[in-house]
Amino acid sequence: MKKLLAIALLLTGGYLFAQTGASVRLNGYAIYAFDDNSVDSYYSDTDYFDGKIKGGFQYGGGLEVLPSPAIGIEITYLRLDSKAPMEYYNDGIQYTDFNLAQNFLFLGFNKYLPVNPRLEPFVGVQLGMDILDIENPDNGNTGSNTKFAWGIKAGTHVWVNERVGLKIQLGLLSAVQAMGGSIYFGTGGAGAGVSGFSSYYQFNLGGGLVFKLR
């Protein structure tokens, strides 16, 4: 349901933006996200977890409106399927390599600094949410949660022609207090094991394509 809501928001926002007289772009993203190695929390010898969120291929798309040539407002969807290897305590020290899917939905603001008709550097900030789905492969337990997320990015567009450009960028994404509530890392039943982990930060590098629709 949350995934359908995210897609609906993306499509609705795109439709509303497209009604304006501003320039409209379609952005496609293909990015490599690096590991976050500092996901941990420690309360006692029998209440802790320590691990990381592994990186992987991140992909998605965005619809962007430029009310002026130097300013862009963008709705973006990004997905990353990866692993979350964790050591934790549950009737003894346990280790599980959890399956983790992240679905980011952002409202972004981009600032462009055109150098010439071919080269268009930019910086941007993103605010939104991260819909996290986790699965314990040892017992099939699953959970889902939605957390506030933010991102920053910088890069450049290299325009091949008047309509199509190559996107090169690096960035940082973070979800705040990324898991908790209905998501449990334990290998037992519901409520067993670790019930959350701290904020995480993932650097990414890649790019994609950008298309001028109007």
Please explain how this structure is put together.
The chain has one domain (2-212): Porin. The protein contains 1 helix and 10 strands. The protein has one helix at 2-18, and strands at residues 23-33, 36-44, 47-53, 56-68, 71-89, 93-112, 119-135, 142-159, 164-175, 200-212. Strands 1-4-5-6-7-8-9-10 form an 8-stranded antiparallel beta barrel. A hairpin with a 6-residue loop joins strand 6 and strand 7. It starts with a helix and ends with a strand. Mean pLDDT is 81; it is low at 179-195.
Short description:
This protein has one helix and ten strands, in the order αββββββββββ.
Describe the SSE topology.
Layout: H1 2-18, E1 23-33, E2 36-44, E3 47-53, E4 56-68, E5 71-89, E6 93-112, E7 119-135, E8 142-159, E9 164-175, E10 200-212
Low-confidence stretches: 179-195
* N→C terminal distance: 32 Å
CATH fold-level topology: Porin
Q: From the helix content, strand content and strand pairing, which structural class follows?
A: mainly beta
Strand order in the largest sheet: 1-4-5-6-7-8-9-10
Shape: elongated
Estimated share of beta-strand residues: over 45%
What percent of residues adopt helix (DSSP H or I)?
under 10%
Overall mean pLDDT score? 81
Proper CATH architecture: Beta Barrel
Query: How many strands in all?
Result: 10
Text of the CATH class: Mainly Beta
Number of helical segments with 4 or more residues: 1
Main traits of this protein?
214 residues; mainly beta; Porin; 8-stranded antiparallel beta barrel; 1 helix; 8% helix; 65% strand
